[in-house]
Amino acid sequence: MFVINEPQKLQLLYESLEKSIPESFKVYGAIFNIINKNPFNLEVLVDAWPDYQIVITRPKKEEMTDDLDHYTNTYHIFTKAPDNLEEILACSQVINWEQAFQIQGCQEDLNETIRKVSASKSVQVDYTRTMLFSLGTPLEFKTLSNGKENLTQMFKLSKVDEASREENVSSVFLDTSHARLVNEPWKFGKNERSLKYVERCLQNFPAFGVLGPEGLPVSWVVMEQSCELRMGYTVPKYRQQGNMELIYHHVREYLIQKKIPFYFHVAGSKEIIVQKLISFGFKSHPCGWHQWKCNPKKYC
């Protein structure tokens, strides 16, 4: 594996990965942000060029200074050749197995290999699989644009029933002042390292929220380093009032206009949310969303 950092090659890789969406969503989104200012200081590794089979994004070495910070120490992986992945993942120059880290991807085929290599490295793995959703692929959007269709009309969400919502509720962009509010209920957060990660996301990426009558956000979603919308939450008192529907309306309008790719994951057990998303026009992808949280046994 070797790093590619030439702008032209990165752009070609980014465009090539469009053909492999949704399985390539994680590396595709990360490379989008690398091309656009690279706020998380990531780098891209490939096994060959231009006929690559494996792509990995990871933070540059100077970012990975905290051996316990698996939020910063995150690898995104896409492969066309799962059989070749074991040797690459086992290489210490590709992944630092001496520290806590995460691997994220949208391919279930990664699971067996990651577990096998982790066992050989005496690393404990906490695996999470959820449903992957998106409004469509970039190639679909391009086709619609070439046909001079209005994207926001093609993917029209159901109309929000304003009469059913609390008075004085308005939509907002969140900022770093909301970091603790976002971090506290986040299933994968609730600690000081995740708080720093949330702050960094809020500082660099779009975050959408709805203000309640008291002037505080009561519902929100936050984009992170691979263009995924995460940390979605609605305060219990304000659920079933159309707040998240309003957020997704603004998400669609803003991100499509800015040509920013986006997608998200939802636990399959949340049937009401899943059905609501499908009614909004979002698509569920069979490949799923996968995360492997890896901890060397010396840290367990």
From TrEMBL:
One Gene Ontology cellular component annotation held by this UniProt entry: mitochondrion
Keyword Acyltransferase: yes
Presence of keyword Transferase: yes
Enzyme class: transferase
Domain Glycine N-acyltransferase C-terminal: 208-296
Domain Glycine N-acyltransferase N-terminal positions: 1-206
GO molecular function: glycine N-acyltransferase activity
Coiled coil segments of this chain: none
Keyword annotations from UniProtKB, A to Z: Acyltransferase, Transferase
InterPro entries reported for this sequence: Acyl_CoA_acyltransferase (IPR016181), Glycine_N-acyltransferase (IPR010313), Glycine_N-acyltransferase_C (IPR013652), Glycine_N-acyltransferase_N (IPR015938)
SUPFAM superfamilies assigned to the protein according to its UniProt record, in alphabetical order: Acyl-CoA N-acyltransferases (Nat)
Entry's EC annotation: 2.3.1.-
Similarity comment: Belongs to the glycine N-acyltransferase family.
Protein name stated in the entry: Glycine N-acyltransferase-like protein
Organism ancestry: Eukaryota, Metazoa, Chordata, Craniata, Vertebrata
Gene: GLYATL2
